[in-house]
Every structure is written in structure tokens, then in C-alpha cells.
Design brief:
Layout: E1 7-12, E2 17-24, E3 27-35, H1 47-69, E4 78-84, H2 88-105, E5 109-113, H3 114-120, E6 136-141, E7 146-153, E8 156-162, H4 168-178, H5 186-193, H6 216-232, H7 236-267, E9 271-275, H8 282-295, E10 298-300, H9 312-323
Parallel strand pairs: 1-4, 4-5, 6-9, 9-10
Antiparallel strand pairs: 1-2, 2-3, 6-7, 7-8
The protein binds 5'-O-[(R)-(carboxyoxy)(hydroxy)phosphoryl]adenosine and zinc ion (ZN).
Length: about 350
């Protein structure tokens, strides 16, 4: 660990959460998130509304992060921000803000890839959490992505499998929508799954070769199943909601664990991490943990607050890049489809 005092202010605005965090030498001092409730009324994120809300939230969120950390702007070593991937209008708000602030304070600006950040969140200094050893496999599961990444060092990452259609978070959210649950439905399905029977209803797993995933077929299968049952019993959903949620979650976990098993076999790597919003799911967290005795894995499960979108994960990438002197210049632009 360095003897210098490095303070990073990080900004995340890739989707519908406006977030800011302050980090000191790898430790989080503050981690503030303003979630945008407005999208709940629309059953999904409305990009135009998201960028407007970021515009409103960004100054108060950054102010709060600095205050809570007890750090003055003049103490900051660098500004880190999410460059992509994400919604362009949302990314532009954070990018422009970060560029102006770094310019005004005359300190380095550091661009961060959101998907790398979900993975490197495991390197935030936290007393009860061990850091992965290289090489490890990281499964990033969120509302926009489903990937298996081979991580050789902090910045050497290779995507070895990904979804060919929907992301796993969409599978949760879209299934939840057709059951009448609010947006995002992932956390609600998780809660109800704990009360239901995971084997009550069987959904076939998609057949996709290699390490890629597919979730659109599952969504359709659930839709047809529910439509058919509701025809027979109009109260089917209300009467069986917990069992349906448990069965959906069980199927999704099975798909994810099967692919991880295959990835581990193919690469010979038994160190396995998860990240992204869906890694908040209690069933997935447990299934991964079970992999330790079932398959001899060493597993890394992120602290709950670093699973869904947050700026702490942007801060750790900013810190690691700062140590390497890897800065962006003022010509850097947001990139909606930035790759790992
Ligand atoms: O990483 P994230 O906050 O945003 C993206 O980058 O997409 O992930 C959001 C996704 C949503 O689809 C949400 O339903 C899902 O994460 N999610 C969950 C849980 N908590 C959040 N899915 C299942 N179980 C949960 N407990
Ligand atoms: Zn994310």
C-alpha cells in the first residue's frame, strides 16, 4: 500500500442511478446513490427521463459524497467517471460533469469502463472480504449484460462468453412484469422465491453452445406458461406467485451455474467471482458459495452495496489507474457501447 494520500472522487451515471463516491487509498469513505423512482411508472428505464434526472441529481449527490467523506475538493487527487457502456444521454451528464470538475481543479481525469468496474469492485478494501487472486473468472450479471470474463490482471480481461439476446437481469425484470410485479422485478422475485417451492414448475433451459447464454426463450416460455394457466384459473398468478418466482429463479440459477462449471472446466480456473446487479440475488449468492464444496471453487461474492450500480466500483478502478498514471485527456468522449 502506498504511503501517499490518494483521494479519488468517482461518478457513475450510466443508466438510472446517479452515484458518487470518495475513496482514500483503496478504502471507501462515502458511497452515495440517488435511484430514479420515476421509471417505476413506466415498467422500465426511459432514457430521456434518466438523463434529465441525472442532470438534477449530480450536483447534490457529489456534494453529499464529499461532505460524508469529510474531504474537500482541494484534497482530491483525481476524478474518475463512467465512460461507458450505458445510455448515451445518461453517460454524457457524468462525463461532462467529471471533465469540467477535473479541468477546474486542474487534477487528472480517469475514464472507467462500467463492466470492468463491476469486476474490480472485488478489490475495494473491505475488512471481511478477500480479494480474488489472478487468474479468476468473473461472471457479470446485470440488467444490461451477462458475461463470463477471464481476468488475468487488473486490466487484462477477455470475454469468453456472453448473452446472444437478453441479459439475465432482463429475464428477471420481464418475467416479473408479466406477473404484475413492479420495476425492477429482480429484488421482488428474490424475496418471493424464498417463500416458494423452486421445483413447483419446470421451465426448460435454453440450449446454447459453449459459454454463451440466451434468455429470450425462457421469457417466452414463462409467458406461454402463465397465459395457459390463467385461462384455466384466472387467479393462478395470485395463488401461486411465490412458487412461480421460486421456479423462475431456480431455472435462471441453473443456467448460470451450468455455464460457470463449463467455463471453469474449459479454462482450468477455479477462482470464481460474480458482479453486477443480479449478483445481489440471494439464491445466486448461495449457489456460488455451494460451488466451494461441490466443485472445489474459491468464490468471491461482492458486498451487497457493490452489486447494483454504484460509484464505489468506479472509484476503485480510478484508484488502480491512478497508481499506473493511466489518465484520460479532456478530449475523451462517452461511449455507449464501450467493450471490456
Ligand atoms: O448492475 P445493475 O444495477 O444495472 C445495470 O448495469 O444493468 O443491475 C440491475 C439489474 C436489474 O435487472 C435488477 O432486477 C437486477 O439487477 N437485480 C436483481 C436483484 N437485485 C437487482 N435480480 C435478482 N435478484 C436480486 N436480488
Ligand atoms: Zn451495472
Amino acid at each position: 500500500m502506498t504511503s501517499q494520500n490518494i483521494y479519488i472522487l468517482a461518478i457513475e451515471s450510466s443508466c438510472d442511478d446517479t452515484a458518487a463516491a470518495v475513496m482514500h487509498n483503496g478504502k471507501i469513505l462515502s458511497n452515495i446513490i440517488a435511484s430514479q423512482k420515476i421509471h417505476e411508472d413506466y415498467g422500465g428505464v426511459v432514457p430521456e427521463l434518466a438523463s434529465r434526472a441525472h442532470q438534477q441529481n449530480i450536483v447534490p449527490v457529489v456534494d453529499q459524497a464529499l461532505k460524508k467523506a469529510g474531504v474537500k475538493k482541494s484534497q482530491l487527487s483525481a476524478i474518475a467517471f463512467t465512460r461507458g457502456p450505458g445510455l448515451m444521454g445518461s453517460l454524457l451528464v457524468g462525463t461532462s460533469f467529471a471533465k469540467s470538475l477535473a479541468y477546474g481543479l486542474n487534477i487528472p481525469l480517469i475514464d472507467v469502463n462500467h463492466m470492468q468496474a463491476h469486476i474490480l469492485a472485488h478489490f475495494i478494501d473491505e475488512a471481511d472480504f478477500k480479494k480474488p487472486s489472478f487468474p479468476f473468472l468473473a461472471m457479470t450479471i446485470s440488467g444490461g449484460h451477462t458475461q463470463i470474463v477471464k481476468v488475468t490482471s487488473y486490466f487484462e480481461m477477455e470475454v469468453i462468453g456472453e448473452t446472444i439476446d437478453d441479459a439475465v437481469g432482463e429475464a428477471f425484470d420481464k418475467s416479473g412484469k408479466l406477473l404484475g410485479l413492479g420495476y425492477p422485478a429482480g429484488p421482488e422475485i428474490d424475496k418471493r422465491a424464498k417463500l416458494g417451492n423452486p421445483k413447483a414448475f419446470a421451465f426448460t433451459k435454453p440450449k446454447v453452445d459453449g459459454l454463451n447464454f440466451s434468455f429470450s426463450g425462457l421469457k417466452t416460455a414463462i409467458l406461454y406458461f402463465v397465459q395457459k394457466q390463467v385461462k384455466l384459473n384466472p387467479n393462478f398468478i395470485e395463488e401461486h406467485l411465490n412458487d412461480i418466482c421460486a421456479s423462475i429463479q431456480y431455472t435462471i440459477i441453473g443456467i448460470l451455474i451450468d455455464k460457470l462449471k463449463l467455463a471453469s472446466k474449459d479454462t482450468g480456473i477455479k477462482h470464481i467471482a460474480i458482479g453486477g446487479g443480479v449478483s445481489a440475488n440471494s439464491g445466486i449468492r448461495q449457489a456460488l458459495k455451494d460451488g466451494e464444496h461441490k466443485f472445489g471453487w474459491t468464490t468471491y461474492i461482492p458486498k451487497f452495496e457493490y452489486t447494483t450500480d454504484n460509484a464505489a466500483m468506479i472509484a476503485i478502478v480510478g484508484y488502480l489507474k491512478f497508481l499506473e498514471g493511466d489518465y484520460a485527456d479532456q478530449s475523451v468522449m462517452a461511449s455507449a457501447r464501450l467493450k471490456i
